[in-house]
Design brief:
It contains 8 helices and 12 strands. The chain is of the alpha+beta class. Strand 1 (92-98) and strand 2 form a beta hairpin. The longest helix has 24 residues, at 60-83.
Amino acid sequence: MAIEFVNKIPTGPRTLIRAGRKQALNENSPYSSYNLDHLVLIAGIVMRNLVKNPTFFSKPTGLAAAITALPLLLSLTANVAASDVPLMDQGIQIGDPEPRRAIIWSRADRPSRTMLKYAFNDQFTNATTIRGPYAMEGTDFTAREDLAGLLEGKDVYVKVWFEDLTNARGKSDPVTGHFHTIGKRDDIRFVWGGDTAGQGWGINKSFGGMKIYEAMRQVKPQFFIQSGDNVYSDGPILPSVIAENGQIWTNLVTPEVSKVAETQAEFRGRYKYNLLDENLRRFNAEVPQIWQWGRSRSRQQLVGLQRFEQ
């Protein structure tokens, strides 16, 4: 494996320059799939040559090779770092708020470990870092941390990221959020709603998406009560719907919402669909939520789950 890899590395200075310019940052390049272990291998080979022949890089040819190889190695490192880390496409969500605690939820795109930092200021001075639970395939790479022992009536700032299990240096870009713990003398402001993406009305990007969530976020509520029907697993979302006055409402559609949910992946896909909306993701990162579930809808969803299990 190492010999095959070494044989693919350009050896001449001019070849290195061409590779660095044309291939290193090209996602279709064979170099783009190499991981950090391969880069370490290259570094080892260079160091071995240096030890065996200390004067090699003092020669014009050796020095030129070293100088021209450096941009390629740096480009490869940047490309690997950008592609070989967990992703947090669904952002974070804060829920079940109590005076001294809250649940922080998130999802990665691969097996990884949740990392969380919180502080009582937006500069994260004197922050506390928590090595959280593992996000594994059995939970669709979701994880949640019970953030307990907080101070009452305080603003809490959180930063969440995931670490790859095969490479601790593979860290996702962090997602930040904040919320306010309820104090005994606080004035309470909350918002409530429900029925998300129901009756075929999905995310319309030309309309600005789910703008109601941005409107609610701007009033800075202490929490949000979701009064049921977070998803409509029994109602397909079609590419377009006729609205009032004959106007066309254009939906963003994914395979999971294009039909009635019948599999676990399709049920989960309903929740992932809502989180494609940036208004909702921004809202989730700042407003703790308390979820209820309408009785009639619970029965309908339960029937669907029973059919799935059978």
